[in-house]
Write a structure and sequence with these properties.
By secondary structure, the protein is α+β, with helices and mostly antiparallel strands. It has 2 domains: 7-129, SH3 type barrels, CATH 2.30.30.230; 137-435, Fumarylacetoacetate hydrolase, domain 2. The protein is 20% helix and 25% strand. The protein has helices at 59-65, 70-80, 84-88, 92-106, 113-116, 144-154, 230-233, 249-255, 304-309, 323-327, 347-355, 383-386; strands at 34-39, 47-52, 55-58, 120-122, 126-129, 137-140, 170-172, 178-180, 184-186, 189-192, 201-204, 208-209, 212-218, 237-244, 247-248, 269-271, 276-277, 285-286, 311-312, 315-321, 333-339, 366-368, 394-395, 401-402, 410-417, 425-435. A hairpin with a 7-residue loop joins strand 25 and strand 26 (425-435). Helix 1 (59-65) packs antiparallel against helix 2 (70-80) and helix 2 crosses helix 4 (92-106).
């Protein structure tokens, strides 16, 4: 489990990139997340970069601009080819080696400053891509608070199904429709059946929702047939990112029995462009435990390391900017906050469970946490919860109301880690905008 800290986490460490030293930046030198980009308006190949302040260090350029130790040079050569998946496959020691080298090279007083200054690209000039190739995507349901609130809407006397506290529940999602932050998507169309209707109709969703999630991105693979034990589960995780799994609640309500979500989920999901490594998150771990009267995890989902530091303390926010707000120059309203550490299952448990049957995970595979609601009503991480399925719309600061999302609405997810005595690190933004349904498919 990645809980060890070293000189790269020193809160006193400063960078010669001045913006990395600014109070409140998501990307101080203690972070160094990975992303994929090209210069805006260029036809250049996608390259891998590391965020530092308001800049991106272009690793394609940096690999050849200054002298690196042999072990670092070989890893940077791999990254210079623009294939983050190949680097991810090498496991945690490769990440640690590059992190220490980049931290030293970007630190104040570094002999690399003159050579690397020309390898920086302003983030405003960087067109971000998905950070890696996502081969497969599985979505989980790890917030007991979300599961309970949703369950009460359908089963007031028995909101949690019997298996919830025993098994991390998940389903296989659609990787092809995952898009990077900043893109828009069309309102989905599907079969919808009103409670009093004799038959369903085909129509654009009227109950479009967001889901505040985090993405767990797999690094090194496991062979098919070889489960990953808990004590090694985090060795297979490259890092975490923000994730919005948009949901059409009215389509979902009709289609989900007996096999679960399908068209209500696979039309679009939005991923933030930066992968924050498990090493960067090491200072922000918490102990992981269950209430004493809850079932304790089965042995394959338990380990001393998980009990000591299995939770990751990531504070999360959901913002909405309506079309009217955008036209008025309004940055948007904060809808809710929550924290990954309040989840019922840890990231290591998700990997151990996903592979216990012999399933092989590959570099770049994405595991969604599911909606990360907190224990308080104002920590609901979807409109379905915040508005009681649209019955009590939220009032926005400009006088508008929302039960579910309307065309032109933009949802912005934010996440950050902060703790006394440590440098705050963040995940950037995960931003997506709803476009009107495409064409007239009603039938």
């Amino acid at each position: 489990m990645t809980t060890a800290t070293d000189e790269t986490h020193d809160p006193e460490l400063k960078s010669w990139v001045d913006s990395a030293n600014a109070e409140g930046t998501d990307f101080p030198i203690q972070n160094l997340p990975y992303g994929a980009f090209r210069r805006r308006g260029s036809g250049e190949p996608i390259r891998i970069g590391v965020a530092i302040g308001d800049q991106v260090l272009d690793l394609r350029l940096a690999s050849g601009r200054t002298a690196w130790p042999d072990d670092v040079a070989s890893l940077l050569t791999l990254l210079a080819e623009g294939d983050l998946n190949a680097f991810m496959a090498l496991g945690p020691q490769a990440r640690v080696t590059v992190r220490r080298a980049l931290s030293a090279a970007l630190a104040q007083g570094s002999a690399h400053e003159a050579q690397l200054a020309g390898c920086l690209v302003p983030q405003t000039d960087a067109a971000m891509n998905l950070p890696c190739r996502i081969g497969d995507y599985s979505d989980f349901y790890i917030s007991v608070h979300h599961a309970t609130t949703i369950g009460k809407q359908f089963r007031p006397d028995n909101p949690l199904l019997p298996n919830y506290k025993w098994v991390p529940i998940g389903y296989h999602g659609r990787a092809s429709s995952i898009q990077v932050s900043g893109q828009a998507f069309y309102r989905p169309t599907g079969q919808i059946k009103a409670p009093d209707a004799a038959a369903p109709t085909l129509a654009p969703s009227r109950r479009l929702d967001y889901e505040l999630e985090m993405g767990i991105v797999i690094g090194s693979a496991n062979a098919q047939g070889e489960p990953v034990p808990m004590e090694h589960a985090e060795d297979h995780i490259f890092g975490l990112t923000l994730f919005n799994d948009w949901s059409a609640r009215d389509i979902q309500g009709w289609e989900y029995q007996p096999l679960g979500p399908f068209l209500s989920k696979n039309f679009a999901s939005t991923l933030s462009p930066w992968l924050v490594t498990m090493e960067a998150l090491a200072p922000f771990r918490r102990g992981f435990s269950r209430p004493a009267d809850d079932p304790q995890p089965l042995p394959y989902l338990d380990s001393p390391q998980n009990r000591e530091g299995g939770a990751v303390d990531v504070e999360l926010e959901v913002w909405i900017q309506t079309e009217a707000m955008r036209q008025a120059g309004h940055a948007g309203d904060l809808l809710s906050t929550s924290n990954l550490a309040d989840a019922y299952w840890s990231v290591a448990q998700l990997v151990a469970h996903h592979t216990v049957n012999g399933c092989n995970l590959n570099p770049g595979d994405l595991l969604g946490t599911g909606t990360l609601s907190g224990p308080q009503p104002d920590q609901a991480a979807s409109l379905m919860e915040l508005t009681s399925n649209g019955k009590r719309p939220v009032k926005l600061s400009n006088g508008e109301e929302r039960g579910f999302l309307e065309d032109g609405d933009t949802i912005i997810l934010k996440g950050y880690c902060q703790r006394s005595g440590l440098r705050r690190i963040g995940f950037g933004e995960c931003r997506g905008t709803v476009l009107p349904a495409r064409g007239d498919r009603a039938a």
